[in-house]
Automatic annotation (TrEMBL):
The keyword Lipoprotein does not apply. It comes from the Bacteria. GO terms for molecular function: DNA binding; DNA-binding transcription factor activity; pyridoxal phosphate binding. Residues 22-90 form the HTH gntR-type domain. This is Putative transcriptional regulator. It comes from Streptomyces viridochromogenes Tue57. SUPFAM superfamilies: PLP-dependent transferases, Winged helix' DNA-binding domain. Keywords: DNA-binding, Pyridoxal phosphate, Transcription, Transcription regulation. In the C-terminal section; belongs to the class-I pyridoxal-phosphate-dependent aminotransferase family. The keyword Transcription regulation applies.
């Protein structure tokens, strides 16, 4: 039972019914019992003092103390001398009702799933200092509703940072702050729909969630094959009427390839020919180990590329901070539609701007790059030692790699067997939108894997693979 001060019931909404429904203390008791059994008052919650609740309900203090006493006798509440009266009953104890408390799936002990950075390395102190600084120094006018498009300070800072680190060409008016890449894609899709665009080409294989967002926005996600050179740009002409495509040119997910230089140029030519737009998902371009950095495609043609980015792969998805950089043709609609759009809290936007301006964000990136490189090396070595002959690919950058398995092996069964060993992995085939593919293997993320757990995680992976041979 929780005893923290955060578990106090300050204002308590109770439905006492009508005066004809019985004595007042009985009505208070029934209302409290109903609120507890419905889960509106959780186990361990401290109820208001009887005098306070009586004032709130407009009744005598005796009616409240009598209701408390009866519920204590029934086991719903408990009281200790010198402490508040707290809720004791929980639905998990009500075996006779046939109801069970909801159970959460156990967290995997070994996280080899893609999509997360090292959550242990979140810069708690720096983030707390940045937030604290904004709370104490921000003008009172900033505590109103956030301006559409995001705070101007953050947008200006992002323009300078993206130009320096990614070769992006933009003005603050081209930048819109959103909550994630998913949110950015959703907004852009609505803008595309308003322009009469009905489909978006998507990398095959590719990130499943973005295809779902495109479909939910009323557009058709069209699979476009990828290979070792990234998106097969030559395949776009086969889809008549296609004018938009979503791609990750710096580091394709999940295959890990980089869009070849000749394909980058060809993709921009295609966008001009069809009067279209390229949606560039720049999700983890900062993490490269064995190759030179690749500039954002947006810098080659700002008039035809929408750049999408978030902090989900760098700091944490829990922050809910992302941004998009769009050509003026699209920002006009985006700004109009942003009036009711959700965006990160102003204080968080300013805290992130502080990290960028102070250099703390760059220092965090450098530390993460070194940590992930060492962890990738350890994972590749452990796989070579314990699974000799199993090829790996996509290791030059990012936070994941591909482990190829024999075509006869049921990779979905391997994922299930790994889960039974408290190991989270992903099936490569799960990222395909069609059945016409030869990919066969596992996607292994190492962003959120503890350094000391690499070899043991691979040992459990080997056990799952052996079980499914």
């Amino acid at each position: 039972m929780r005893e923290s001060q955060t578990n106090l019931a300050g204002d308590l909404l109770l439905h006492l019914g009508r005066p004809g429904d019985g004595p007042l203390h009985e009505r208070v008791k029934r209302a409290l019992r109903t609120a507890i059994r419905d889960g509106r008052i959780e186990v361990g919650t401290a109820l208001p003092p009887s005098r306070q609740l009586a004032t709130d309900l407009g009744c005598s203090r005796w009616a409240v103390t009598e209701a408390y006493s009866q519920l204590i006798a029934e086991g719903y509440l408990e009281a200790q001398t010198g402490s508040a009266t707290r809720v004791r009953w929980t639905s998990a104890l009500d075996a006779g009702s046939g109801r069970r408390a909801p159970r959460q799936a156990p967290e995997a002990r070994f996280d080899l799933g893609p999509g997360l950075p090292d959550l242990r390395a979140f810069p708690r102190r720096r983030w707390a200092e940045a937030v604290r600084a904004q709370v104490t120094t921000t003008a009172f006018a900033e505590f109103g509703y956030p301006p559409p498009g995001g705070h101007l300070r953050l947008r200006r800072t992002l323009v300078a940072y993206l130009a320096r680190s990614r070769g992006v060409v933009a003005t603050p008016e081209d930048v819109m702050v959103c909550t994630s890449v998913t949110d950015g894609v959703r907004r852009v899709c609505h803008a595309l729909s308003a322009e009469g665009i009905t489909a978006v080409g998507c990398e095959e294989p590719g990130w499943t969630r973005l295809r779902e967002v495109i479909r939910a926005a009323g557009l058709d996600p069209v699979p476009v094959p990828t290979d070792g050179g990234g998106l097969r740009v030559d395949e776009l002409a086969a889809h008549t009427g296609l004018r938009a495509v979503l791609t990750s040119p710096a580091h394709q997910f999940p295959l890990g390839s980089v869009l070849a230089p000749e394909r980058r140029a060809a993709l921009l030519r295609w966008a001009h020919q069809v009067d279209g737009v390229v949606l560039e998902d720049d999700y983890d371009a900062e993490f490269r180990y064995d190759r030179r950095p690749v500039a954002a495609l947006q810098g080659m043609d700002p008039s035809r590329v929408v750049l999408l980015k978030s902090l989900s792969k760098i700091l944490s998805p829990a922050l809910g901070i992302g941004w998009l950089v769009a050509p003026p043709r699209w920002t006009r609609y985006l700004h109009r539609s942003d009036q009711a759009a959700t965006q990160p809290p102003t204080l968080d936007q300013l805290a992130f701007a502080e990290l960028l301006e102070s250099g703390a964000y760059d220092r965090h990136l450098r530390a993460c790059r070194k940590r992930y490189r060492n962890r990738r090396d350890a994972l590749v070595q452990a796989l070579a030692d314990q699974l000799p002959g199993a090829p790996v690919s996509g290791i030059a950058a990012g936070l994941h790699l591909i482990l190829r398995l024999p075509p006869t092996m049921d990779t979905a069964a391997v994922v299930t067997a790994a889960a039974a060993r408290s190991l989270r992995i992903a099936d490569l085939t799960a990222y395909h939108a069609t059945e016409d593919h030869a990919d066969h293997g596992l996607v292994l993320g190492y962003g959120n894997l503890a350094d000391g757990a690499v070899r043991e995680a691979v040992r459990h992976l080997c056990g799952a693979i052996e079980e499914c041979r």
